[in-house]
Specification:
Strand content of chain A: 15-25%
Mean pLDDT of chain B: 97
Order of helices and strands of chain A: EEHEEEHHHH
Oligomer: heterotrimer
CATH architecture of the largest domain in chain B: 2-Layer Sandwich
CATH class of the largest domain in chain A: Alpha Beta
Strand content of chain B: 25-35%
Shape of chain B: globular
Chains: A alpha+beta (163), B alpha+beta (284), C alpha+beta (808)
Helix content of chain A: 25-40%
Number of helices of chain B: 12
Number of helices of chain A: 5
Low-confidence stretches of chain A: none
CATH class of the largest domain in chain B: Alpha Beta
CATH topology of the largest domain in chain B: Uridine Diphospho-n-acetylenolpyruvylglucosamine Reductase, domain 3
Largest sheet of chain A: 5 strands, mixed
Helix content of chain B: 25-40%
Number of strands of chain A: 5
Radius of gyration of chain B: 19 Å
Largest interface: A-C, 61 and 58 residues
Low-confidence stretches of chain B: none
Strand order of the largest sheet of chain A: 2-1-5-3-4
Bound molecules: flavin-adenine dinucleotide, FE2/S2 (inorganic) cluster
């Protein structure tokens, strides 16, 4: 199959590679770029385990072709914090037991990150609605919701302190 | 789940896209957000040797409200519909509907054009477009033409669009009508068990304009003229609502699936239609 | 190094031992996307394998043509049963004493069955090649109804068993019969039933569903031809058992096989079994000499690996007029699908279904289970439950409800009247179990009070009146559930899997500077073992949990164990941890005595040190002792500080709980809203309350899904109707309620630290609570029993059948 040149920015770094247009973004990230944080949970765009950020949107990377991502800016869980450190959301998930097996976690946190960008002070209901594209089989969501609300509070406090 | 291979195109103009469609005939297909098409390709239920990605065509983007008309570029996403301040004023029912489609991630990608062009009876926007009496602009090798949403749908996945045409824009009138989009589904991410779009105009306590349309209750969206007629000229009292529901249901023809048998769907549809009418009337 | 804090409590707190809501050590990796799951493994030259699967539920295979697939560049091989036959690997033994086709041998028996294994350079080529394999089928009549499996004219499914009138579990009475398993005394039970004041009879169906962890199953096999060593990574809840099975079926000596369970993205029973994909990846690696990865997609997962439940339970329960239960009779038709691949202890082909007398003192009972074959996927795994305990709990909690209806009694009161009393423990059940400990009345009273039970009933009564007056279309359901589990399999004398006794193990090494590594035969799938095992050890050996590394899942380094499922980890491996810790402490005491120049009997243990009795200023901490064990020659003692414990539990443990669900139901649309869910769990000693709570939330959400919509449904010709997450119901954050958790603490008398295990209680107890809420809402209108799942249309149908739609 003919491959095409694909250029994209991933976690702030420009990457250039050859890929079949049909290659799914999730495979490009995981297999070509070794970013194995995003996972495949359903293959049918229902679970959100493969969620990454692309041009300021949360997308399910199992439902995006590599070719579509040509020229795009992509952020994965690996790009949310300096390697080896946890950002506020990541720490909140740990603090409030927002994960168990960890399989949904990268997608969850990446999605939550965007949610808080768009709605920095969400209600519990808004968090539940805004996270409804991400399935978790382990936690029953209660502590995920708690983690995100706690992270929002902390981020807002930090913002206020800075002002 | 891996799709078959394809050649990929990303034209910058509608004409370029049409040229590729013409060149490859049946073997070519346009892709908007890809959130109906890619799942089908991954399941190998759709084979698309030539895939034309519309994302770079600037003329397909944008929301405009002017001279009493709303114009939506085909590539406007559901996320954009939800967040548009202008639309919230001019056609709040779009937001209400879009919020009930899929989940946040899907809504960032899924477009209004893809949703109405797809022809899947489960899509929510087609019934709404019929309810709004929207008009679709189709551009093909021989130029542009307009077709009413109410005339567009022929059967499941069969529409009035020719293979070498692209749906470029959607147009409908701004209206101050009371609105509602009611949908019952099993969970977030599911298509409708039954859904209804209703617009009602109220003057001096009387209904002077009514439009009722249904989603996923037939192989095409159902706009029920009779249901509207049953409400017009009434004060939307219980009897009128009952008559409207009855009229709408007479045109529904759902099929049994995992969401339930036909009798259930019809019953739920009746409830949903009634609720939509009541909400719309309250807001009128 | 040495903590000089004199205050024992303060020192104990620093250890983060038992009872501490210690933050999980796993999370630092997971939150950064640095987990290492099977599909993350990438080896040089790795190939990708995947299956051609059967579109039919029952068909003969006339031919398989692989030519077109082989012609595709990048395709290395296509294996069929014919290729596996010379190796004796076209069939494999199941954990239940049956055998299963690895690749279809002459016929297929369920939709999605593995027919051929394609091996290619990558998954894209593989997917293209699968399309090119041509299989010619001849369709056969399909059997999907378990209740018709033993009809005289039922189609023969397992031709390979022709003429075999007995199987692994005794007599086979029909060509589609697998086994009959019984417990209790049927004659005595029948007598009691006949003589009783009141008898009710009901069929309770617990539908077929699937554990569906977010990560599907997969494996990577790598045969190193130079060393002759096979390394197998995979989604294994029981890596050591996999090693033994792999050795038995491949003939490779067990020391030459290394099985590694990396991080596992949830298991819930799905990853206990041995699947054709594992076997094929091994064979493919042997054949090609290159590493081979197999990872199933979600549809494969739902169609082919590890269904759960599918029990038709016909019950009779008898009582006195006053509501004292006298007898219970239960006959089950168990749909096992095409092969009996249940992962139960060998002697228990129906798992621990015989815990179906529940929390009640039922003097006489009988249980009979008939396992049958159908044209459905094999499995029968314990979906977050200990071997059919959830079926048992659902059965008895429904039977109690129908009995309450018959007696005209409040169901909460009927339960209380029949609970095994606190002073009856240890309690011998009519079906042969010895319940270790419990205090049901206390838990029940606490639960009823917490939800304001009497007020809820009053509100419900008002609601019914309002409904009858046409003022509302919503009903209120109060779902009660008091469950008793049986977990921690189990005593080697009666529990084994493939002959391996169900003990578990822990090995500890204390390093010279006072930190430690501990290895276990179990494997976490999200339960947080790395966190909690360290806590148990911290309390036993006085080394801070933060200084103890926990390792699991690598059979080359970990001691043999039977793995993690059936809530057995805490009861068995957790006990092994405590016992190994005690061995460490015993040796440490001798070392301390030597160092302090006293008799070891003159020392007492204080949190993290041995102190000379009566001379608190004289002590040696575990850190000092550890160092001494490596640097001093101590007469009569070997150097070093290590211990191993293989723990064979004397009995099972019996966690219990009281759950109450308050649900609003819209009779017109069949939709529901969960207004309140209260869950009281008693899991004995609580190791980490934060983790317990998380387990409860997760298990309750699974229970919600199962009760309210999740199913593996087949049509008449055996097509799976629920093969994607569109139709297979997994609730999102939006549909999931907020739960209230609570507890009582009744330690297990026989467990070293009194812990009982908790991971599965919420699934076991949750399903009846949700389902009973639905039933309870319609009870005033005459509903006795309606099968799950209670999705919108089925709830609507209940209302419709009761005439509630014509009234409105
Ligand atoms: C998990 C999930 C849940 C969903 N739930 C819902 C739901 O509840 N309700 C709902 O309505 N939808 C739902 N969808 C579908 C989603 O809204 C799709 O995004 C939408 O239907 C199609 O929009 P798209 O831009 O993605 O189109 P695409 O997938 O790109 O295209 C769909 C079809 O339309 C054609 N097409 C697209 N654009 C044009 C154009 N401009 N001119 C001509 N033809 C065109 C394509 O060739 C293709 O045949 C769901 C999708 C997913 C994955
Ligand atoms: S794998 Fe992409 S949404 Fe599930
Ligand atoms: S933590 Fe396991 S799926 Fe979410």
């Amino acid at each position: 199959m003919s491959k095409m040149q694909i250029k994209l920015t991933v976690n702030g770094r420009e990457r250039e590679l050859l890929a079949e247009p049909r290659e799914l973004l999730i495979h490009l990230l995981r297999e070509e770029l070794n970013l194995t944080g995003p996972h495949i949970g359903c293959d049918t765009s229902h679970c959100g385990a493969c969620t990454v950020e692309m041009d300021g949107k949360s997308v399910k990377s199992c439902t995006v072709f590599a070719a579509q991502a040509n020229g795009a800016e992509v952020t994965t869980i690996e790009g949310l914090a300096e390697p080896g450190s946890l950002n506020v959301l990541q720490s909140a998930f740990r603090e409030h037991h927002g994960l168990q097996c960890g399989f949904c976690t990268p997608g969850m946190i990446t999605r939550a990150h965007r949610l808080l960008q768009e709605n920095p002070d969400p209600s519990e209901e808004e968090v539940r609605f805004g996270m409804a594209g991400n399935l978790c089989r382990c936690t029953g969501y209660q502590n995920i919701v708690k983690s995100i609300l706690a992270a929002a509070t902390e981020l807002n406090a930090a913002k206020e302190a800075a002002e | 789940m891996i799709p078959g291979a394809f050649e990929y195109y990303r034209p910058r103009g509608v004409e370029d896209a049409i040229a590729i469609l013409q060149q490859h005939g049946d073997d070519a297909r346009v892709m908007a957000g890809g959130h109906s098409l890619i799942p089908m390709m991954k399941l190998r239920m759709a084979d698309v040797p030539h895939l034309i990605d519309l994302q770079d065509i600037a003329s397909l983007k944008g929301i405009t409200v002017s001279a009493g008309q709303v114009t939506l570029g085909a590539m406007v996403t559901q996320h954009e519909l939800i967040n548009s301040a202008e639309l919230r004023e001019a056609a709040p029912v779009l937001r209400e509907t879009a919020l009930q489609i899929a989940d946040p991630q899907v809504r960032y990608c899924g477009t209004i054009g893809g949703n109405v062009a797809n022809g899947d009876p489960g899509n929510d926007m087609p019934a709404l477009m019929q309810c709004l009496d929207a008009e679709f602009t189709l551009v093909g090798p021989n130029g542009s033409r307009a077709i009413k949403a109410r005339e567009f749908y022929e059967a499941a996945y069969m529409t009035g669009r020719e293979d070498d045409e692209i749906l470029t824009a959607i147009r409908f009138d701004v209206s101050g009508a009371g609105y509602a989009y009611e949908k019952q589904k099993r969970k977030i991410g599911d298509y409708a068990t039954a859904a209804a779009a209703v617009l009602l105009t109220r003057e001096n306590g009387m209904c002077t304009g009514a439009s009722v349309a249904l989603t996923n209750l037939s192989d095409v969206p159902v706009w029920s003229q009779a249901a509207g007629a049953a409400l017009e000229g009434t004060d939307c009292n219980d009897a009128a609502i009952k008559a409207a529901v009855k009229a709408a249901l007479a045109e529904a023809d759902p099929t049994e699936d995992n969401r339930g048998p036909v009798a259930f769907k019809l019953h739920v549809a009746g409830i949903i239609i009634e609720r939509a009418i009541r909400t719309a009337w309250q807001r009128a | 190094m040495n903590d000089l804090t004199p205050d024992s409590a303060a020192r104990a707190a620093k250890l983060k031992g038992l009872g501490c809501s210690r933050k999980r050590v796993e999370d630092v990796r997971f939150t950064q996307g640095k987990g290492n799951y099977v599909d993350d493994i990438k080896l040089p030259d790795m190939l990708f394998g995947d299956f051609v699967r059967s579109p039919y539920a029952h068909a003969r295979i006339k031919s398989i043509n692989i030519d077109a697939a082989m012609a595709l560049p990048g395709v290395i091989a296509v294996l069929t049963a014919k290729d596996l036959e010379p190796l004796g690997l076209h069939w494999m033994p199941t954990l239940a004493g049956d055998k299963q086709m690895v690749l279809a041998d002459g016929k297929v028996l369920f939709q999605g069955q593995e027919v051929a294994f394609v091996i290619a350079e990558d998954r894209y080529i593989n997917a293209d090649a699968i399309e090119l394999v041509e299989v010619e089928y001849e369709e056969l009549p399909v059997l999907t109804d378990a209740n018709k499996a033993m009809d005289a004219d039922a189609v023969v499914l397992r031709e390979d068993l022709a003429g075999q009138t007995s199987g692994a579990h005794g007599e086979r009475r029909h060509h589609n019969h697998i086994f009959r398993w019984e417990a209790g005394d049927e004659a005595a039970t029948n007598e009691v039933l006949e003589a009783a004041d009141v008898v009710v009879e009901e069929t309770v169906y617990y539908h077929r569903t699937h554990p569906c962890p977010l990560e599907t199953c997969g494996s990577v096999a790598s045969m190193d031809k130079t060393t002759g060593k096979l390394t197998l990574w995979g989604t294994f809840q029981a890596p050591h058992v996999v090693r033994t099975v792999a050795s038995l079926i491949s003939g490779i000596e067990e020391h030459n096989i290394r099985v590694i369970s990396p991080d596992i993205g949830g298991g819930f029973g799905n990853k206990v079994g041995v699947y054709p994909g594992y076997v094929c990846s091994i064979v493919a690696s042997i054949v090609t000499g290159r590493p081979v990865k197999w990872v199933e997609d979600r549809m494969d997962n739902l169609m082919a690996t590890a269904f759960a439940r599918d029990y038709w339970m016909k019950g009779k329960i008898s009582a006195t007029k006053e509501g004292k239960i006298t007898g219970l009779h239960c006959h089950v038709v168990a749909d096992h699908g095409a092969f009996d691949a249940c992962a139960d202890p060998t002697k228990f082909p129906a798992g621990f279904m015989s815990i179906c007398t529940g929390s009640y003192d039922i003097p006489t009972a009988w249980l009979g289970v008939d396992g049958v074959y159908t044209n459905k996927a094999p499995g029968g795994v314990s979906y977050r439950c200990s071997f059919r305990v959830t079926e048992a709990a659902y059965f008895i909690e429904r039977m109690i409800e129908v009995l309450a209806i018959e007696l005209g009694m409040d169901a909460a009161e009927l339960r209380a009247k029949n609970f095994i009393a606190k002073d009856q423990f240890p309690y011998e059940s009519a079906l042969g179990w010895e319940y270790d400990s419990g205090d049901y009345h206390t838990a029940w009273t606490k639960a009823l009070k917490a939800v304001g039970y009497d007020d809820l009933r009053a509100e419900q009564a008002e609601r019914i009146e309002a409904f009858k007056r046409g003022e509302t279309r919503k009903l209120l359901g109060i779902g009660l559930s008091h469950f008793t589990e049986i977990v921690g399999a189990g005593p080697v004398k009666n529990c084994d899997i493939l002959g391996m006794g169900m003990f578990d193990s822990c090995e500890i090494r204390i390093h010279p500077t006072g930190s430690a590594v501990a290895r276990f035969g179990t494997i976490s799938q999200g339960q947080g073992h790395a966190t909690t095992f360290a806590q148990i050890l911290a309390s036993e050996i006085g080394i801070a949990a933060d200084s103890i590394t926990v390792e699991e899942g690598d059979t080359d380094t970990a001691p043999y164990g039977l793995g993690t499922y059936g809530s057995r980890t805490t009861p068995v491996a957790g006990a092994a941890a405590a016992m190994a810790g005690r061995k460490i402490r015993a040796k440490a005491q001798m070392i301390a005595a030597y160092l302090l120049e006293v008799h070891d009997g003159d020392l007492e243990w204080d949190v993290d040190r041995f102190v000379v009795k009566g001379a608190p200023e004289q002590f040696k901490t575990m850190t000092e002792i550890a160092y001494a064990s490596y640097n001093q020659a101590i007469p009569g003692l070997e150097p070093g500080l290590e211990a191993v414990s293989y723990y064979d539990p004397p009995n099972m443990t019996y966690p219990f709980g009281a759950y109450i669900c308050v649900m609003e139901i819209d009779v017109d649309t069949g939709t529901h809203e969960i207004r309140q869910f209260y869950a009281l769990d008693d899991c004995g000693t609580r190791i980490n309350p934060m983790i317990i709570e998380g387990q409860i939330h997760g298990g309750l959400t699974e229970a919600l899904a199962i009760a309210m919509g999740q199913e593996i449904a087949y049509d008449d010709i055996g097509n799976v109707k629920t093969g994607t997450l569109m139709d297979f119901f997994l609730p999102t954050a939006w549909e999931t309620p907020t739960y209230t958790t609570d507890f009582t603490e009744t330690p297990s008398p026989h467990h070293p630290i009194g812990a009982k295990g908790v991971g599965e209680s919420p699934n076991v107890g949750g399903v009846p609570a949700f389902s009973n809420a639905v039933h309870d809402a319609f009870r005033p209108f005459g509903l006795k029993q309606a099968h799950m799942p209670h999705d919108h249309w089925r709830v609507w149908k209940i209302a419709n059948d009761l005439g509630l739609h014509t009234q409105g």
